[in-house]
Amino acid sequence: MHLFTICLNTKPVTPLQSPFCMTPFLTTEPIAVAPARPVSQTERIRTIDMLRGVALLGILLMNIPFFSMADRFSDAFRNDPTNVNFWVSAVITVLFEGKMRALFSMIFGVGIILFVARKEQADRAAFGLFFRRMGWLVLFGLIDSHVLLWMGDILYFYGIIGVIAFWFRKIKPGYLALGVLLVAIFDNVMYVSFYQDMRDKRLAYLAVEKVQQQGQKLTPAQEQTVKDWQAVQESFLPNKAEVAEHTRLMKSPNYFTVASCHRKEVWDSQTKYLIYGIWDPLALMLLGMALYKWGFVTGQWTRRRYWQTMLVGYGLGLPLVVFSFYASYSRHLADTEAFVRYMEQHPVIWTALIYPFQRILLVMAHASLVILLIKSNAAKGLLNRLGAVGQMAFTNYVMHTVICTLVFYGYGLNQYAEWQFYQLYFLVAAIWVLQLIVSPIWLRHFSFGPLEWVWRSLTYWQRQPMRRTVSPS
């Protein structure tokens, strides 16, 4: 699905930008019987908070164009190296696209183990608490996507996929890692199936088009073929007239007009296309579980092993992603029309099959780099701020939605389709600075971010204490 949501710059169908993971837990001693409660500040694993903070800020790099840019926005610069937008897009695609989302999914998988383990050690109903937690997450996702109008919401998907991943939490890490490979293969099969279904509808439409050109009357089946392709085109490959109409609706000052612009497609992605969207994050959650059990994400490896992982990840991953980027953007993705022509002639986009492999290599390299910085005490102030951003990731993720919709949508400042692509990243930088400043200040006075507090109170079905009773270390 990455090909259609990122490369073609149309509405995301199975968006995968995770906001946060479960509450970390550090102790391994049996816990005395006590009411189930959220993790305390002293029990947090700071490395995980910092990795989550990096992923949260990084994911905005990929999300912001879908808040702000018209469909097919990259057609103007996709294969034009003289355009600054091309190089901004290239850097983001090569280094960050999919990698930050992968890191979110991995940390979410870690969180499943951490949340459940503590409850099981306390002999509490971990099953009920966890499923209640995921149920609220699904509801928050529906609010984020259908009320706040973020078409790329991931909360809904993670609530559902988390329930599936829950059943794998006790499997040995080697089998979890093998599961990643199996699910990645299955995910590629699903992608090829999706692509070929689209291609079949295109070829069938072309056959009907010839009949129309000959002046023959269409049968009901042929009329349905036309409708099927038009539905695909509207969702994934809009023509210029459809792009213009979508832009007009998004710039409307009426909230309900803007909402009508994408609610149906968001709901389709949450129902009809759900089967295509669960495998990728599920595989990465399993990988996160394995890496936690192996001690990778908690910083327990030696510096040498992290260096080796980073060098192998960058050494193999960067050539693969650069080749994939070049092949895609210089050939079948020069623009949307070029992609359609390519699709008519090729049953598979072979370079797209590189995606899961280069992404895993690079996310492991990125994570190793962050952990090496943590272990070296370099940039300690920045890393502590990233940890605070990660601890408040739910609040900060929804803050992205609120800020971006109010800046770009018609009922806000109405900047939709007004900015150059590169200009979006000035706003990204401003949001980063804001959250890096505000999150630590908030956590000096409160134990949770505002939305984290709501989520925990609903999970435990008990109002949680909000203000700190002791200063954070």
UniProtKB/TrEMBL annotation:
Transmembrane stretches in the record are: 50-70, 90-117, 149-168, 175-194, 273-294, 306-329, 349-374, 394-412, 424-443
Residue intervals of the DUF418 domain: 291-462
What domain of life? Bacteria
Arranged from A to Z, the UniProt key words for this protein are: Membrane, Transmembrane, Transmembrane helix
For this protein, the record's InterPro entries field holds: Bact_Transport_Assoc (IPR052529), DUF418 (IPR007349)
Q: Which residues form a coiled coil?
A: none
Q: Which PANTHER family match?
A: INNER MEMBRANE PROTEIN
Can you name this protein? DUF418 domain-containing protein
Q: Per the UniProt entry, what species is this protein from, by scientific name?
A: Fibrisoma limi BUZ 3
Output the lineage of the source organism: Bacteria, Pseudomonadati, Bacteroidota, Cytophagia, Cytophagales
